[in-house]
What does this fold into?
Amino acid sequence: MTTTPLAPASEEALAEIIRDHAARQAPLVIRGGGTRPVGPPVTGETLTTTALAGVTLYEPEALTLVVAAGTPLAEIEALLAEHGQRLAFEPMDHRPLLGSEGVPTIGGVVSANVSGPRRIVAGACRDTLLGARFVSGKGEILKSGGRVMKNVTGYDLARLMAGARGTLGVLTEVSFKVLPAPETEATLVARGHDAHRAVALLSRALGSPWGVTGAAHLPADLAGGMSETRIRLEGREDSVRTRGEKLVRHLGGDWEMVRAEDSVALWREVRDVLPFAGQAEAVWRISLKPTDGPVFLDLLERNGLSHHAFLDWGGGLVWLLVPEGGDAGAALIRDQLAALGGHATLVRASEETRRAVPVFQPEQPRLAALARGLKRRFDPAGILNPGLMEPAAATATEHS
It folds into this structure.
């Protein structure tokens, strides 16, 4: 039987619910819009933040936005667009990849620290956070950062919440620095390169003075027959054209310039991992040094792991599709990453696999001890998304 989720309409009502559940040691499953079911299944009474919605403060001149956590992401993006602005970090929409429904909320974006292709220049979601309000697992209303707020307890709490996935507290309000939106964008596309050559080109482009805001590579099997190495430029029309011409001369070779909405579609494909949407296999998100991206794929090939993959962040982000069977390649993937210094998150897999395989990268003992200490400090009864990021099924925060 499906029960109606708890949906408090105020911060005080949320705090009361959490205090009651803490007293009874009754677990809560924390949800925003329910579009990102990443991690092992969690049991408990569902609590959603969707009733905590609305813009608290928006000052376009100051590039400052304060918004309730349950506000739909689409509403925020539409409001910013009206003023020629945008969120800097280009958050991914997980629904195509995960086959999920619902409406993405800004609290869910922050809680998972969702960051897209523009992260290479704009930073991650947590890097644009000015502050946050949240309710801890003890039912305390806490705030950090913001225009007139001060940090408490000695932590940068806003950034601590970004990536904690609701295990330390339930976000109620977040504030951001936003950025002006560009007049246009264009993507330079070169075809036929292997991953090693592509990453060399992407690295040269990112090291150039011409303001690259996207750097990705799709192999032939995911790009319609010929590989595509993609480089994005944004800004005024004349600037994008001039910088694109200079960059082509700098890189050499043949490049096609894809403009405006056609360019937007190329990066939506990368951002939302559309090549892997609608398939049954497991999907991993691998983060490592950009030049190690092709090396990692070579190691998988040599060790016999069947896979499809493409690169974002200049080679530093690998999206990997592997067969669902066994441990979905977890042991081999993490063994190879151990030498390279990267980490892996199992983003999509069956419920059975997500119960058996550590979804998040296992942490070193000292970091794991720190994570446990933070959990005891903010959620001593262990009622917020219990087990979501525990080592037996998953680990602490995604380091991205």
Remarks:
- The two ends are 37 Å apart (CA to CA).
- The longest strand covers residues 169-177.
- The chain has three domains: 11-180+365-378, 184-271, 274-356.
